[in-house]
Write a structure and sequence with these properties.
OB fold (Dihydrolipoamide Acetyltransferase, E2P), globular, alpha+beta, five-stranded mixed beta barrel, about 120 residues
Length: about 120
């Protein structure tokens, strides 16, 4: 009886951790060999777990998904939801997604109104 219970418990634990793992955006999907810079207008922002993020539109009208850092890391850098307004022009520094058809970047630093927020200082 105990082995079946342990197997069931292990399956439950494994299945509940899977969605979180799939939702997490690691660095391996991004081109780490080349820095990428994007200046664009904020059209949407979402601050919260698992990562803060923004949707921005560049000068050509292309919408980009900016993945920022986990909330605690952003807050340590001074980046809060109140710092960024919809319609603000920002400059993001980081790494573009490896798939050129995916308009997404992992952001290491974000410049808003002339102030630089270094959310990944260990990667700069």
């Amino acid at each position: 009886m105990k082995p079946a219970y342990l197997l069931l418990a292990s399956a439950v634990v494994a299945s509940t951790g899977a969605p979180a793992a799939l939702a997490h955006h690691g660095w391996s999907w991004y081109d780490g060999s080349q820095e990428f810079t994007l200046t664009a207008t904020v059209v949407e922002k979402e601050f919260g777990n698992p990562h803060d993020r923004m949707t921005v539109e560049d000068a050509d009208g292309q919408r980009w998904n900016l993945l920022l850092s986990p909330p605690a890391r952003s807050r340590r850098a001074g980046l809060t939801e109140d710092v960024v307004d919809i319609g603000s022009t920002i400059t993001a520094y980081g790494h573009r997604h490896q798939d050129a058809d995916t308009f997404e970047m992992k952001t290491e630093r974000l410049e808003v109104a002339g102030k630089l927020y270094n959310v990944y200082p260990d990667r700069s």
